[in-house]
Write a structure and sequence with these properties.
homodimer; mainly alpha; elongated
Chain lengths: 215, 215
C-alpha cells in the first residue's frame, strides 16, 4: 500500500522516487522500501522531523514495525536513505547545444523540484540530521556528490565546445549555478522567473568562461 | 533571566542578538523580548520548530504566559520576529578598498554566522514556517531585503571605483556571492575554506564586472 500525497505536486515527486526504487517491479523488498519512503515523505510534511517516529512510519506504510527497525534503525538513517533515493530520480541532463541553454534547462528543473513539499520536507529534515550526526552528514555529502556528478556531462560538453576552459571542475560550476536557486526557493521566498534563471545562467557562464572568447 | 546557550558559539550568537535588542537598557519590555528570544533560540535547537510550544517558551524565559501570547500570538509570528532580530545584529560592512577584498571579508562573516547552531535552528524553523504561512513569508522577505540592503554600501563603493558597471543591483551581487556559502554550510556540508571564499569572490567579480576592465 503506497499512500498518496495531498496534492498533485506531491504525488509527482513521491511517484518519481517510488518508481526509481523499483529495479525489480513486484518484489516484496522493493514494495516495502517504496511504502516506507512514501510514508516518511508524508509524515515529514505533516509533523516534521522532530516529531517523526518510526512506529508511526510503519503504521502509515502498512509495514511491520520489526521490518522497519531492521532496515532503518533510527530516523536519521531513514532520512539519509530518503536523500539517497531522491538521488535516483532520473532527471534527463539537458543537451541544448550551448552552456547557456543547458544551464537554463537544468536550473528550471531544479526550481521545479524545489517546489515539491516532499522535497522541501526532506531537505529540512536533512538540515536537522546533519547538525547531529557525522555519519548522516557523510551520507548526505555522498548524495550531493552523486547529484552533481549526474549533470557533469553538461559541463564536459561545454568544455569540448570550448565554452569553458579545459580542466574546469564540473561540480563547482553546477554548484555556483544552482545555489542562488536554492537560496531563493528555500529561504528568501523570492520568485524565480525565467528571466532570473536566464541571468543566473549568463552570470555563471561569465564567471567560469574564457573571457577572451566572450563578446 | 536570560538563559545561556550550551557552548561558547551559542552564547556569542544569542548575546549579539540580545544586545542589539536593547535600545533602552534596563527597560522591562526590552528584557522580556530578550528573554523570550533567547529561550526560543534554545528550544528551537533542543526540540525544533514542530515541538516548540509557547507556554514552554514562557516558562524557559521566566515570563508570564499572557505576556508572551499578547506579543507573539503564534509560534510562526515568534519565529518571524526572531529572524527580524537577527537582522539587527550589527556586522560591520567590510571596506578593504577592493571588491574582491570586501567580498572575501563579507563571505567569511556569513560562513561564521552560519556555524551557529542557533542561527541554523532559526533558518530551519523559518523554512518550515514559510511553507505554511504567507504572512510569515512576507516577514521573511522583509528580513532578507534588510539583510542584503545592509551590505549594499560595499557594492556602491565598487561601482564608484568602476569595478562594477553603473546601475549594478547590489542585492543581486550579494545574493550571488553568498548563496554558495549557504548551500555548502546548510546542505552539502562541504568545508568552506579561505581558498573557496577567495574563489567565490573572484567568480562573483567576474560575473558582474566590466569585462573590458578585467585582465
Amino acid at each position: 500500500v503506497i499512500p498518496t500525497g495531498k496534492d498533485g505536486c506531491e504525488n509527482v515527486a513521491v511517484g518519481e522516487v517510488v518508481a526509481s526504487e523499483r529495479p525489480r517491479p513486484g518484489g516484496r523488498a522493493a514494495r516495502v522500501v517504496a511504502a516506507v519512503h512514501a510514508a516518511t515523505f508524508e509524515l515529514l510534511e505533516e509533523v516534521g522531523y522532530e516529531l517523526l517516529q518510526l512506529p508511526q512510519v510503519a503504521e502509515r506504510a502498512d509495514v511491520n514495525r520489526t521490518t522497519v527497525y531492521r532496515r532503518w534503525p533510527t530516523k536519521a538513517v531513514l532520512v539519509a536513505d530518503l536523500l539517497a533515493s531522491l538521488m535516483q530520480v532520473n532527471v534527463p541532463t539537458p543537451d541544448t547545444g550551448t552552456l547557456q541553454g543547458d544551464l537554463e534547462q537544468l536550473l528550471t528543473q531544479v526550481a521545479a523540484v524545489l517546489t515539491s513539499r516532499s522535497v522541501r520536507a526532506v531537505l529540512r529534515a536533512s538540515m536537522t540530521v546533519a547538525d547531529d550526526s557525522p555519519d548522516v552528514q557523510r551520507a548526505q555529502a555522498a548524495f550531493w556528490d552523486e547529484r552533481f556528478a549526474r549533470s557533469g556531462a553538461l559541463i564536459e560538453r561545454a568544455v569540448a565546445r570550448a565554452e569553458l576552459p579545459a580542466g574546469t571542475d564540473p561540480r563547482t560550476v553546477l554548484e555556483t549555478a544552482a545555489s542562488p536557486i536554492y537560496l531563493r526557493s528555500l529561504f528568501t521566498s523570492e520568485t524565480i522567473t525565467p528571466e532570473y534563471i536566464n541571468q543566473v545562467a549568463y552570470r555563471t557562464t561569465r564567471a567560469f568562461g574564457d573571457q577572451k572568447l566572450q563578446h
